[in-house]
Amino acid sequence: MPRMKTFVILTLLAIAPAVPADELERSVAMMAKVGSAGSPSFSPDGKRLAFITNMSGSPQAWIISSEGGWPDQITAFDDPVTGIAWSPDGEWIALQVAPGGGLNSQIYVARQDGTALRLLTEGTRANNWLGLWMPDSKGLLVASNRRDGGSMDTWRLGLDASWTLIAENPGIGSAAAVSKDGRYILVSRLRNRGDNDVYRVAADGSGEMLLTKHNPPATTFGAEFGSDTNTIYLGGNIDRDLHAFGRVVVRDGKAGSFEVLAMRDDAELSGFLLNEQKTLAVLNWNVAGRSELTFYELAANRHRNEKLELPSDLAGLGEFSKDGTKLALTVSGSNAPADLWILQMPAGKFQQITRSPHPGVELSSLVRPELVRYKAHDDLELSGWLYRPAGSKPPYPVVFSFHGGPEAQERPYFNVTAQALVANGIAVFAPNVRGSSGFGKRFVNLDNGALRVNGVKDIESSVNHLVKSGIAAPKRLGIMGGSYGGYMVMAGVTEYPDMFAAGANLFGVVNFETFFKHSEPWMAAVSTIEYGNPATEAEMLRSLSPIHKIDRVKTPLIVLHGANDTNVPVIEAEQVVDSLRKREVPVEYILFPDEGHGWRKTPNRIRSTVSIVKFFKERL
What we know:
The protein is α+β, with helices and mostly antiparallel strands. It is built from ten helices and 37 strands. Strands 9, 10, 11, 12, 13, 14, 15 and 16 form an eight-stranded mixed sheet that branches. Strands 30-31-33-32-34-35-36-37 form an eight-stranded mixed sheet, with helices on both faces. Strands 17, 18, 19, 20 and 21 form a five-stranded antiparallel sheet that branches. Strand 18 and strand 19 (244-251) form a beta hairpin. Helix 1 packs antiparallel against helix 2 (416-423), helix 1 (23-32) crosses helix 10 (602-619) and helix 2 (416-423) packs parallel to helix 10. The protein is globular, with a radius of gyration of 24 Å. The termini are far apart.
């Protein structure tokens, strides 16, 4: 039978828990089972893609033809696969695996059929992050804190499991690019959240050069070599507010200044890729949360102003094929789960490669959010995404959903919990309060340190706008969020104890003292500007910690946390639960023994979503 060149239809191969009898549980569980695919990596000949999908019930590595078809599963770990990269010679696929969902990731390699699987790292509590293959395919560039818990250094990890230190990185370091001859590596070093530098490092240890000299704060990302090792392309906001596409040129052994090549007044650059021939760059722009792709011709130094019509709201750049004829992307949106697409070059034609499973869920019926703009207490412009329940009229019960980071951004992505809530008659408003990314350097730094009180006041501003607009019913308001969003939940119910009828705290920070003490050392080291320095600003951090105002809480809460979370350790959840139980404030507690910072396994995603929706449904 000839091979069918069709798009793949991914179906769940492993069904988590039995179908719940209760109709609400059944319908929400179907929503939570919707799958996703991402992290595409081309084979050297461009004919196949290695990628990660959770269609087996946990994120694992698969391979699919770049023309579509049925994929082959190549890993079956009990733990999630969180990174993947195909070697330049095509012989090996490198894998990053997270034990128990935690941050102490380990690096494996396997043949493309999944055989000859072997562990390269030591399997300890050290954190190891998969980076890039060396051009000779004999080793990988990885970030690891095996030398010093507070530093993610850059290492060469050989296929023989040998370690060679390339660069010591105070804070978080990662390899962004390696030259074709393997002589130079571009290393990004994050000393503080919101400020980093890029260095050109000699692989033989003979020296390094700072490429991004600047007055803090400024961030650069996506560093790539051009046609030679003296031309480096970057995304960055050095000496400007919005991220733009630019380059740094090394002349006479000295790095020049950041030269802007393409910029927009209405958008920030969120990513870019160069083709193998170093003739073309694809630029990914963040326009108020939605993605737009444009092209820059490197040889002609010309930005093409035409925009591609994307299949959905959001696009994540994956890889160019080696011959430059294909660009792999991850495309998603509020009514489209993440899937792999290929952009055929130069025709500009999109082809969908995977179709993530959504049994029982009609994607076209899902709610697309509307962008809402409003003013904070100090007239700062804020915005957020409003999901309205179909068939209902305002004022609605509303759950205010705060993103993590805090240097992250609410965008119209496939938000399973929001869709499950609106399907049950509850509106969701997802604000981008000050401190969010995507709106420029000034905006993202407006909540640093003692300024965090203004970020917390944005909770009240968000609520007031929807109530005064007649959208939200003032006695039927909920609040939820994960990680830093969990902090905002706890800040909301302590600072405004009469505002919310229910709250969901997912792996949130509640006590900065215990956060800095128990989080990963590298996380603590880079967080002192964003939050405050516990050595010199202990009182300020104490005043900003909701745990010290926990006696104000009247709001019933549900608290969810992963037992293996080393980013926001489980002690944060335990403090909340213990304190509220002692005061007899209603609190539900769900601890996932096989998860870290967030949920990757399908059964856990189902349990979390069902529990949250039932909780808000009963109280709002």
